[in-house]
Amino acid sequence: MKLEGTIPLFPLHELIEMVVYSSVTGTLNVYGPGAPGTLYFRDGVLYHAERGSAEGMTALSELFEVTEAHFTFVSDVTTEAESLWGTLHEHLHTAQRLAARWRKLRAYIPHMDLIPLLLGSHEQLVHRVSPKHHTIFQALDQQSDLRQLAQKLGWAEIDVGEAIVQLCVDGLIELRPTRQTTAQVESPTDDQKSPRTGGLFDRIRSRTPPRPAPPPPAAAATTAPQSTPEEPASEPKEAESPDDLILKLLRG
């Protein structure tokens, strides 16, 4: 079973909650700018996330930064990898908080494959570094990218990102892409250029049967026998809501 739609019409956190509530197994795939992401569920439990080289909470928070994307849910797909533990509330709260912090940095750090370079000699710049950034300044080697720098320091990537942006604002460093990153840049695919149309909600609306129109009074008078008492017309059933239909599709 496979279903699809767009993130602007169905926010990611609501979609995740819907999958968890449905207690299904499968993958929720998100396609937007940059690398696609995949969330894995087993019996409604979110246990793994991946996007490009990122996994776990890093990948999940990156997906919450995406505002224009489309998604597909494919049932019965699993993986042996596991990178998320804890409750759904913890996952969503942490991922959304990290996404909000990253949005403030993305003008400087679109990705972690960037190398911080000093704008001068170490001796010229060290006296301009604030005490709280001294540790990361001393770790700059003109070769390590931001992800490697985070691993070397044992810091979270978001903490490295915030410190690096401040050093950029202070005019102490600049960020340049690695050669590997430059060589791997590709033009966006058709799926990434624009969200798909005719997604989940369009199909749901098309499957919802219209309410039958009552017959005109004149036609009813000519077709009904005079001797038979007219039976009261039964009220049409109310159409199911999109949420109910999504749950039915998820549950198969």
From TrEMBL:
Q: Where is the composition biased (Low complexity)?
A: 219-231
List, as start-end ranges, the regions of compositional bias called Pro residues.
Answer: 209-218
Q: Which residues form the PatA-like N-terminal domain?
A: 4-102
Pfam families under this entry?
A: DUF4388
Superkingdom assignment: Bacteria
State the InterPro entries in the record.
PatA-like_N (IPR025497)
Region ranges (Disordered): 180-252
What is the designated name of this protein?
A: PatA-like N-terminal domain-containing protein
